[in-house]
Design goal:
- Keywords: Coiled coil, Membrane, Transmembrane, Transmembrane helix.
- This is Type II secretion system protein L.
- This protein is α+β, with helices and mostly antiparallel strands.
- It has helices spanning about 5-20, 25-35, 40-45, 95-100, 135-140, 145, 180-190, 225-295, 300-310, 340; strands spanning about 50-60, 65-70, 75-80, 110-115, 120-130, 155-160, 170-180, 200-205, 205, 315-320, 325-335, 350-355, 360, 365-375.
- Mean pLDDT is about 80; it is low at about 380-395.
Amino acid sequence: MSTATQSLQPLMDRVRRGWRASPLPGFLGWWGGELRNLLPLRWRGWFGSGADWHLLQHSEVAAQWTLRRCGYAEPLASWDDSVDVATGDAHLPPAALDAALRHVDREDRRLALLMPGAVVLRRPLALPLAARDNLRQVVGFEMDRQTPFNMAQVYYAVRELGTPAAAGRFNAELVAVTRGTLDPLLARLHAQGVSIDAVDVAVANDRLGVNLLSPEQTPHRARPRRRLNLALAGACVLLLVLVLSAWLHNREAALSQMQAEVDSMRSEAQQVVALRQQLQDNAGAAGFLAQRKKNTVSMLSLLQEATARLPDSAWLERFSVDNTGQIGFQGQSQQATKLLDALKDSTLITDASFQGSIQPDPTTGKERFYLTARVHQPTAGKAKSPAPASSGSAP
């Protein structure tokens, strides 16, 4: 055992004892048993705990060994205490034992020697909580006070009990058997080539759950399956990490794709908004132009109105209309002053007045005038801006 393992051993023992003292092992055992009971009989063995315990018991009266499976009353094999019934050799494993355990995997095979309750000393103890970390050593030092024997005369084990105890203490049970009782049985098994994993106490068809053998005498079995299970567990963890990583990668890829689609849709939406705004602007401009055209008096109507209102003796040298709706008349007439009366009732030309003085023209004998007026627009208030007018002249 390495130095690192030795330094971690007390911590591991403390964790193991804490786990065993908690209610979780019992609950998980009960739950697993209930689940296994729901399976067919042929499948239940596949979901076992791994260790398959078989129990050995010795009868002093018949000098015979009996093997049965833990929890079952019917014997699987029995043989004489002295020789193998098949080979006659007392130093080889009995054939009956090998035949009974042939179907059990060697890695899972566990043998426990059961001692009758009559030869075993069981004593309840109330110990302080500080003794939990070194329970076996503490009880070993107290052996001569708790039993008629000292530690060198017995094989012993200590187990914690789940019964309530006083504050700062816990209940435990000391299980001990004298070496004079157990050593002859161990010697007989050794002579027959039978190796056991534990020495326990018989409780009906089951075992108490302790091991009276000292840690030095307990065989240490290699467990290649445990290494395989650890490797498989590591592989499962690695696969889980890879699956989670792949899932995260896929989610990020999907999120990136969705973000790209959202950006594309946002760009298209912005284009649609721009097109809608452009359409509204164009529609507004078209409406504005149509409204302005509707509210603006055409040049042809002005010319027609001026032609109809002015007398035939008057003729125009210049006719102009600016953007503000101001009309300019420049020309000659026989009686220029009567032109205001002619334009007075016009529905298109209003506010007519002379600009400057009326002067006679010696060449034509007519009066030269310059008259200004305004275009009458009754619906101009409905337009958004003043209606533009084109300028022109008529001779």
